[in-house]
Structure formats: C-alpha cells, structure tokens
C-alpha cells in the first residue's frame, strides 16, 4: 500500500522582485515507519526554477512522527533552516507554520552499546539498567518536577538533600510518617521520676488499732495511666518496736483509702507489713525496690499516689530529720514488655 503524499511548493524573489536562484533541501528529521515502509532520513535537494519549487513527498498520514527539516540556500542570502510538519495534501513553504530546526539524527553502532566509552542501552521500562549506573558519588543531582534532589558524600557515607519539596509531593511519605510516629509514641516511652527527702522531724506513728492507715506527711505522687509499670524504692530508718508495722500503700481520695499494699502487691496487707521494715530483733531483712502494673483502681485524677502506711498502737518512730533523712522515689517506666 503506497504512503500518502503531499505537494510542497514555494516561491522566492530577490530584493528587486526578480526570481531568486538557489536550492531548497528537505530532509526527514528521523526515520519514520508506516505500513511496513521506512521513510529514511535522506535529503531531497530541489533547485529553484524561476524562483519556485514544486515536489511531492510522503506526508504524515501514516508516518505520524514524520517531520522535515528545510534548508533554504538562496543565492546571496543567509542560510535559513527550520522544521515543518507535512500535514494534508499541499503545503506552501512561504506560509507554512515553522518551528526551530530539528536535531540531526545520530546512529549508534550495536557494538558500542553497554561498553566502556560507548553508549548505555535502556531496559524494557526505558530506564538505565542498574549495572550501568555510576557508583559512589557519580550522580550529583536529579532534577524533578517539584525540586532538585542533590546526592553527595561518598559511597560509604552518602548524603541526600531535597530542596524545599512538600512532603505531600512524596508518595506514601505522609502516611508512613504518621504510622511511624504512632509506633514511636507507643513504644519509645521515656520514664518519669519523682523523688523526695523528708527532713521535717522524726515522726511518731499514730494509733490505728487493728487497721492500716496512712501516716500524715509521707506522700509522693507521679502521673500515670492504667498499664504503666511503676517502681518504688526508699531508704529510711525506724525504731525497734514490735507493736508498730509499716508498709507503702497506693492511696486514693481526700481521706486516704489504701488500694494496694506493696508488701503483697494487692489490696490485702501482709499481717505484719513489709518484711524489710519488721523490727530486727531476730530476723535480718533485705530491702529492694517494688514494682507493679498500674490499674484504674490505683489512679487518682491521673496520678498514682503512694503513702507510708502503718498498723500501730501509737508507739514507734520513723526517722525523718536532717540527721536521719527519709528518702524515697517513684519511677514510671510507662508501658513495657
């Protein structure tokens, strides 16, 4: 099937309106294919006859990518070069839409593809295969639609800088950061500390009968939520008295109600309180920190409150003076595994 053609015409005159002389060259900018036919990039040279030309060439009906580079070599005038698109059945070069001259086609030998000093081939997705990419700091920058990405440093210590590109322009970045931030907020918890010295004066324990009660002036609190792990430790001294028993309790309310005893870790006290605080007439105690997981019953307006608690007949002394200070601390480790 023959390809569709176009008649190309044109007229040129000298400054004195006499017919000009010269040669008009038309050359396909690149090879174009259609219907099993190749339109090769060979130039067609047409001499002016009485200042005019008329020639028939292939148009772009089937070979849709076809364009011609026109070179006007008119006697006694400067060389003129431009590009035309051969659309329709006739085209007058004097009035035809023109664009800048097209690039000269370059042909590459197959033997030079992918070799040193040759030309890098493209893969099936029109990208450079990984084995041909430069290593180390060979790529300096990539110009994108929204910004320039600058690559520096060394292969062992690379750096990447993006110039003022909105995070919304980076696919998946916003969602990924939101997920990562939530994970970090959940898992990377910083511990909270509360510590206090009590040196206001040694304290005689109140009479509580058979019950346990908080000792006035001995309270410490820390922000907490259910599920947090809280640790309690203390260093202090008491008098020898077999009728006074001590523990640390978790309390709530204005009239303190004891929700948890550290000696047992529950709402039920040990019969004689914390073993470390037992009067050392016969037994030797070994003190250490206590920890537990906070429940909703332990909380009082967003805080965990602890107090020194006792069961006493009104005798026994807890030393809390400048000479014999009472010290304790709370650590909230947050949610831990």
From TrEMBL:
Domain of life: Bacteria
UniProt name for this protein: Uncharacterized protein
